[in-house]
Amino acid sequence: MSSMQTTVAPTTELKRAIGPKLLLLFIVGDILGTGIYALTGQVAAEVGGAAWLPFLVAFAVATVTAFSYLELVTKYPQAAGAALYVHKAFGIQFFSFIVCFVVMSSGLTSASAASRAFAVNLVAGFGLDVGVGAVLAIAVGFILLVMLVNFRGVTESVMLNVVLTLVELSGLLLVILIGFWAIAGGDADFSRVVAFETPEDKGVLVAVSTATSLAFFAMVGFEDSVNMAEETKDPSRIFPRIMLTGLGITAVIYVLVSICAVAIVPIGELAGNETPLVTVVQTAAPDFPISDLIPFISMFAVANSALINMMMASRLLYGMSKRGVLPSFLSRVHPGRRTPWAAILLTTAIAVGLISYVSLDTEGSVVALLGGTTSLLLLAVFTVVNGTVLVLRRDMVEHEHFHAGRVLPVIGALSCAYLVLPWSSGRPVEQYEIAGVLLAIGVLLWGITWLARRLVGSNTTVKDDATGLTGED
């Protein structure tokens, strides 16, 4: 049976407008967000006052994985990210699709976590006395608002990202400054910073692993920067220095914030708190008017995370549909707005379902559950990416590029896999259930597409040069 292959080559290249400073702000802004603003209390609940330790461990794991990403992005300076690397290494269409769909799913769980954080910060900011149902309604309403903004076709420039980053950063610096002021004034118990406490049902290693799995949610985002490779000036030269600098800056901020949090607020008040930084500032400076701004700064930070992740998720879904690996209706574009409305509707529906489902459990932290699922999905991708580096060593390129060495990718793959596996990571089973449902949705959509193409007798293969994903009969 003969087959026809259609390859569409780009006629123009993206403008290389991003230099070192803008790339650094993009990376820092992408990492900062929901994780540190909402999960500090949950991390402290696992390890007590040593809440800074899981952030340090998460930073180490992220940095080792960043070395693998740096070798790949400088070797293949294209915008498709993990799906591109996996396809180049293994050439298995379904495997490449799964990696791409897992990345998309992580965007949905991250946005869902952000919407919940937005809701609880709004309630705290306005001092509302409402129940679980009202918080859920606010979170769902926020996701619907993000859908409308997404549908209108928001084009975020790099300069806008700079503004958003500075606002997010200002909130964290405010927490650090007020925290240091309280510590210097004797209004904090610094001895709590070295008080290591674990839940009764967990050993030290499992408790640290569980806390690190949560803290890793605060470190994700650095991998998104590889999608800016085609718009970055001389990416092979500046990416290594800038990505590692961005990770280092955020790690320092996170450690300082966590130290201030546990020194100022008793662990019992932090544990289970979905607005921990609001509590920190209000405890350290109850009569300081600026403390009233923290909930709104937190809302701004998590709102930015939600919008970016929902836009990413809908565009990935649209792209996979356009390339024939998902049902064709998901590639429909609104004629007026020129936005992928079908993909936006489906990703929004999944996000609403996620928020509603996890909100049924009033005992646990919704943000921690969704954030943990996000880190679970991305750590699985990172495990594969670290292995991909070693496989692609046989693929030589003409230009110079960054080398991660032989040992670091192995350490990265093993450490990421350790934080994924249920018997070593200490993750609750609900995270695996959510990830499994999302994967099942992806496989179902893949199956529907495959069956539809078989039934219509299509004999066409459509290939995209960027990702390598193909749709064929």
UniProtKB/TrEMBL annotation:
Principal cellular location given in the protein's record: membrane
Molecular function per GO: transmembrane transporter activity
Subcellular location: Cell membrane
Signal peptide: none
One GO cellular component term noted in the UniProt record for this chain: plasma membrane
One Pfam family it belongs to: AA_permease_2
Residues spanning the membrane: 21-39, 51-70, 82-104, 124-151, 158-183, 203-222, 242-267, 293-318, 339-360, 366-392, 404-422, 434-452
Keywords carried by this UniProt record: Cell membrane, Membrane, Transmembrane, Transmembrane helix
Coiled-coil segments on the chain, per record: none
Methyltransferase found in the keyword field: no
Record InterPro entries: AA/rel_permease1, APC_superfamily
UniProt xrefs under Gene3D superfamilies: Amino acid/polyamine transporter I
Entry membrane topology: Multi-pass membrane protein
Protein name, per record: Amino acid transporter
Organism ancestry: Bacteria, Bacillati, Actinomycetota, Actinomycetes, Micrococcales
